[in-house]
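Minutes, project huddle
Topic: does the predicted pose make sense with 2-acetamido-2-deoxy-beta-D-glucopyranose bound?
PN asked that the exact inputs be recorded in the minutes so nobody has to dig through chat later. Recorded below.
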Amino acid sequence: MKACFVFRLFLLSFGVNALSLNANPNSEPAANASCPLVSLDARTNIWAKYNLHPNAFRRHQVLAAAAVISDDLLNKQARKIADVGSFYWLDNTTNMQKVEEILPEVPCANIVGLVLQGIQDRNCTREGFSVPDHERYQRSYGDPLATLIRAYPRTAFAIIIEPGTLPAIINNPNVSSCQALAKSYRQNVAYALNALKLPNAITYIDAGHGGSLGRDVLLQPAAEELAAVYKAAAYPSQLRGIAVNIGGWNSWDARPGEFETPYEEPASKRNRAHNEKIFSQLLGRALDKLGVPSNAIVDTSRNGVIGLRYEWEDWCNVDGAGFGVRPSVVPGLGEQHADAFVWAKAGGVSDGTSDPSSVTFDPFCGRRDAFSPSPEAGEWNQAYFEMLLRNARPVIAVDT
Ligand SMILES: *[C@@H]1O[C@H](CO)[C@@H](O)[C@H](O)[C@H]1NC(C)=O
Ligand SMILES: *[C@@H]1O[C@H](CO)[C@@H](O)[C@H](O)[C@H]1NC(C)=O
Ligand SMILES: *[C@@H]1O[C@H](CO)[C@@H](O)[C@H](O)[C@H]1NC(C)=O
Ligand SMILES: *[C@@H]1O[C@H](CO)[C@@H](O)[C@H](O)[C@H]1NC(C)=O
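Predicted holo structure (tokens), as shared on screen:
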């Protein structure tokens, strides 16, 4: 196993795709051989059968954080989080190459959650925005991910596709760089959906959240864009629907909603999607009319406390946040367009630095409702993690 890994690193240094080693279907890699072959039916809620896998990377991250917590209760709560399933982000090529390390130990009843985010530059209104290169997307993300999933036919996968891009496109239809992003998005997402049309994978396309796509004037264009991608991918059988609130802060069902506004406001701003339950229903119905799979998974990793943001668009390291509902099937199955609550975001990992002198500084991370100090995006923030633990709703129960 170790030798194999070293050999792979050796190949990598010469630019050979490590995953091609596993491409031969006759030599299955070290998957959990005791599990049967997986066949996921995208017409059903697969979360009724599978639990989100607590992957080893996240487990190590959380256990390392727990090791430096001296408070007895908080320490026990932290260790509980190590057992909570969460998604692993394929948002750079390093992570793409590392993901295989978590696969050999997956129990048969678990499903591995992956977030595919090969479109790194999504902020098309920013000066210097560059349109993603399709050939690179295919070579670095689409193809290796499909090869990996094919090499592990005894492991189930749930994949969230391209968070953050759809809202940028739909909110800026007349900006030429956003039109270029839209074209690229359609091509890349269609490619991914088609490549991932595999019996042991189920896919959800990211659809923003109530604040970014819930306005009356945006719901239909968003649904039409998703329909265009679905068509461009030739109606892939493994698409189950949409992923909402990914990395977000919105409540599932709070009434009144956190940003509920008077109905008389200008029609262009009118938004009935005050919570993610309403949002997934409104967008789900628009998708149903267009014949697009419309079931949602909802990120509840950091939405335990609401009412913390000054504005709906505040997205960075929200201060006072807590872990939300643990991954589970949405109650009242069939009543709404929602399959499951999942933890997509790894709570404790920073969204961006609070240091205004950093070249990567985004003003949203310096707002009054953003936690400070916060390290660079992707880095661990111990204080933030401990805050999420303390503020978790439901409270994290431990044996005392
Ligand atoms: C394999 O699957 C079984 C059954 O789900 C599980 O008990 C075990 O921990 C898994 N991992 C390995 C390495 O066998
Ligand atoms: C997009 O870029 C603009 C301009 O640089 C910036 O103000 C904004 O915060 C960025 N949005 C996100 C979501 O990063
Ligand atoms: C985009 O341009 C069209 C045609 O000029 C116009 O009708 C529409 O209101 C514009 N949309 C936005 C969001 O500015
Ligand atoms: C990829 O992302 C991870 C965090 O998810 C980070 O630790 C790593 O440094 C990144 N690698 C590159 C090459 O950007």
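Observations noted during the meeting:
- Residues 1-26 have pLDDT under 50 and may be disordered.
- The CA atoms of residues 180 and 262 lie 35 Å apart.
No decisions taken; revisit at the next huddle.
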